[in-house]
Amino acid sequence: MALLAQTEIQSAVDKLDGWTYSDNAIHKTITFDSYMDGIGFVNQLAEHAEAINHHPDLTVGWCQVRVTFTSHDQGGVTDQCIAMAKAVHSIL
Fold first, then answer.
1. Quick check: is 12 in a domain?
2. In terms of Cα–Cα distance, which of 61, 53, 51, 56 is closest to 88?
3. Which of 49, 57, 61, 86 could form a disulfide with 68 if both were Cys (CB 3.0 to 4.6 A apart)?
4. What distance in Å separates the CA atoms of residue 57 and residue 90, rounded to the nearest whole number?
């Protein structure tokens, strides 16, 4: 899968609620009512990521999860990163 141009990435991110683009990756911090709600989300996202073999970087904190997508192999954002960001919204 080819890397997207910065204009393509920004256009896609502008259509995704709460996502930002920086450091060759797209990011979103999600707040949950409880720590375990965040863990439940992480588990669902992990199952989906494993199924399509495109894994996020996750930072789990108290009632927050920061999700980052980039293609580590290619060093930037691909269509698959954008598709995974959309999947996050479906899981929520």
1. yes
2. 56
3. 57
4. 18
Phi (first) and psi of residue 3, to 5 degrees: -65, 145
For the record, the structure tokens of 20 come out as 């930002």
Tens-place pLDDT, residues 10-48:
999 999 999 999 999 999 999 999 999 999 999 999 999
Its sign, for the CA torsion 51, 57, 61, 66, is negative
Domains of the chain: total? 1
Judge whether 61 lies within some domain.
yes
Q: Residue 1 domain-assigned?
A: no
As a whole number of angstroms, the distance between CA 68 and CA 17 comes to 14
Residue with tokens 């060759």: 24
